[in-house]
Amino acid sequence: MTERSRSSAVRKTPPATKLFVLDTNVLMHDPTSLFRFEEHDLYLPMLTLEELDNHKRGMTEVSRNARQASRFLDELVTAVADGIATGVPLSSHSGGAATGRLFLQTEAVPNLLPAGLAGGKADNQIVAVVMHLQKTFPKRLVILVSKDINMRIKARALGIAAEDYFNDKVLEDTELLYTGLRELPADFWDTHGKGMESWQQGGTTFYRISGPLVPQLLINEFLYQEGEKPLFALVREIKGKTAVLQTLRDYSHQKNGVWGITARNREQNFALNLLMNPEVDFVTLLGQAGTGKTLLTLAAGLSLTLESKLYSEIIMTRVTVPVGEDIGFLPGTEEEKMNPWMGALEDNLDVLNKTDDEAGDWGRAATRDLIRSRIKVKSLNFMRGRTFINKYLIIDAAQNLTPKQMKTLITRAGPGTKVVCLGNIAQIDTPYLTEGSSGLTYVVDRFKGWAHSGHVTLQRGERSRLADHAAEVL
């Protein structure tokens, strides 16, 4: 394709549509990004294709994405009968979601970079392509899209419009993320109590209410009202303008203790109501360090597995992203390799094992052996193709999973399996994942309102006065 034919093809496009130049890391982060730019056109520099080729080998998520992006490009290019000079239409492969065209760089571009920038560096070569496009098409808005912050800063310093790839973000502001609980206004019963029905069933009270707040409620959302007549309830059913509320079981009382553990605050009580409910198949718990996510989940798991015998065993897995330098390969079996990552499991089992004061040392040792025989530690690397039946599956540190990895894990659940995702979206250790694009944020947002899932954001730390003070002042 000559430069003249390329220029005429791009110029024919209405000036309102933008021309997005994609960096390699966008395609390796989300191969479907090719179809996410609606009516706008895309441009792929030759270096992007080279870097895709360099990353296609391996079994990592990045390598899989690079291969998938290459497949998409192959399908797009081979489907065009009259060559790629006028751009490759994206509409047929995107179901009409993307109506723009894809342009590939097939000609060398002149080096327009300032003298201080090394022309051999990959990032700089892509920036040079964008500068060339800006000069060639002055009436079109040419934008570089990259997940690399430094590359975006460099581009803006050179007068180039640069953006992050936003399409994978569930929320722009994680402050808006569904918390799973809602405080009722002081006049709630005045506005919603007219014609209210109430009845008792199975030791709990149900209320059928109607009022202006009902359309905003979600199924399995927790409602609370403090004061002289406190109310703690769960939304069980919504039909039109009426909702059915169910009062909660009080797990803060010792008689309702779960494996010797009682709820220390309101949110922990809400969490235990979800964890102990066999009708809820999927639970997500968010919270800062020390809010009790793992302890509550394990206590409920042991109670449901060993006492109620609802599940056959507990399976625990977590994302193995080191906080500091990696310690290299670890010896032993899959379970032994996972042990360094399972310090949280051991710490919480120590707490749970000390709850029975009357058992004595021998009794506690026997209980510890029994518990360990029912808890399996698995690596995420070997999850594909598996089906867990009647298992209690705990996914720890889930904030480090991508939405695709999260889908892979949750779809492992077979009949009678409960999946619990734990995490703190303020502690993401994976590159290119943010609070808005984390798989944990993704599932919290997508599962809200489903009758068999529930979510609670835990607020208060319950570790120690030292940990609480450190969280405030440090």
Question: Your description of this structure?
Answer:
The chain is an alpha/beta fold and 474 residues long. It folds into 3 domains: 3-163, Rossmann fold (3-Layer(aba) Sandwich), CATH 3.40.50.1010; 174-247, Beta Barrel (Elongation Factor Tu (Ef-tu), domain 3), CATH 2.40.30; 266-473, Rossmann fold (3-Layer(aba) Sandwich), CATH 3.40.50.300. Helix content is 32%, strand content 19%. It contains 15 helices and 18 strands. It has helices at 3-11, 24-29, 46-54, 61-78, 122-136, 149-157, 188-192, 266-275, 293-307, 334-338, 343-353, 360-374, 403-410, 439-447, 465-473, and strands at 19-22, 41-44, 88-89, 101-104, 142-145, 161-163, 181-183, 197-201, 204-210, 222-225, 231-239, 242-247, 282-287, 313-318, 375-377, 391-396, 418-423, 453-458. The strands form 3 sheets. A 6-stranded mixed β-sheet has the order 3-4-2-1-5-6. Strands 7-10-11-12-9-8 form a 6-stranded mixed β-sheet, with no helix packed on it. Strand 16, helix 13 (403-410) and strand 17 form a beta-alpha-beta unit. Helix 8 (266-275) runs parallel beside helix 9 and helix 13 (403-410) crosses helix 14 (439-447). The radius of gyration is 27 Å and the shape is globular. The model is unreliable at 1-8 and 322-327 (pLDDT under 50).
